[in-house]
Amino acid sequence: MSLTKNAEDDLRDSMSVFYSMLKITGAWPNPTKSSLSSVILKTCIIFTSYFVQLVTLIPSVLYAFAKEKNGRKRIKLLTPQINNLCQLIKYTILFRRMKEFRKMMEEIRNSWLNATEENRRIFRTNAKIGRKAVIGIGVTMFSGGLSYRILTPILRGKLVLPNNTTIKILSCPGYFVFFDEQVTPTYEIIYFLQIFGGFFTYSAQCATMGVYAMLCLHMCSLMRTLTNKMKELSDQSDMSESAVQAKIADIVEHRIMIKR
To answer: What Gene Ontology cellular-component terms does the record carry (predicted)?
Structure first.
């Protein structure tokens, strides 16, 4: 019981960083039997996440093609939106593969629970590497991206055109077809929506990067444990035939699990 609890604690620590981000964005799979309230809450989070990301992405793309005539400035405006679109696509793919993701997480959990102490130490070592990488990505994205979205309109202030028209700066300029974004309180609403859009975008990016890192490093751990099993078999020459066959069967089963 103590070993199982330790394995659960180690697994929880290894996934703590990107688990919270997946949970915030609604991308963490619910249990097979979920309550109605949890399903409704997750649906609301997903809807909010898509809304605040698209409310920045679509007007910015429209502005780049419909309003901006300078090719260099157009590319400069589109560059961050291409990144936002890529994160939105990865976010959507994660939802489309939610069943596979849930199954994968269960297999990883079983690997931790059934591992020996030596193999679990390998898992912990690689998990620490992944956690540090995700933390580094998160600090970079949130400190840089959110600071830009929050501080750019404040530091640049208002722009006065030659015809005495005052333009309030947004971190992501947009073309809003059906309303004027310069009037109050529309400007303030869009300003805060762009901040929340950045928060969900960077959370989704860090979460997906965390999943990729976890998969790669867990695969490295499994390969390392497979190598240890084969080395242990080759080093023990005084084993009975039945014991050898059992170890070979274990190695083959472990290899099939890695391939799957």
So the answer is: plasma membrane
Asked if 170 contacts 181 with a C-beta cutoff of 8 angstroms, the reply is yes
pLDDT per residue as tens digits for the range 59-105: 999 989 888 888 888 888 888 889 889 888 988 888 888 888 888 88
Answer for the pair 123, 14: CB distance below 8 angstroms, yes or no.
Answer: yes
User: In the numeric block, which tokens belong to residue 122?
Assistant: 């390998």
Contact between 57 and 88 under an 8 Å Cβ cutoff? The reply is yes
What is the spatial distance between Cα 186 and Cα 190, in angstroms, rounded to a whole number? Answer: 6
pLDDT mean across residues, the chain? 82
DSSP character for 185?
A: T
Provide the β-strand partners of residue 158.
168
The pTM score is 0.80
Cβ-Cβ contacts under 8 Å for 7 (sequence gap 6 or more): 112, 113, 115, 120
Residue 175 DSSP label: -
Q: Write the DSSP symbol of residue 164.
A: S
Angle, alpha carbons 238-251-231 (nearest 5°): 50
| Nearest by Cα to 171 from 188, 155, 198, 152 | 152
Q: Cα dist. 155→47, 183, 232, 243 in Å?
A: 32, 19, 63, 72
Q: Is the peptide bond before 153 cis (omega within 30 degrees of 0)?
A: no
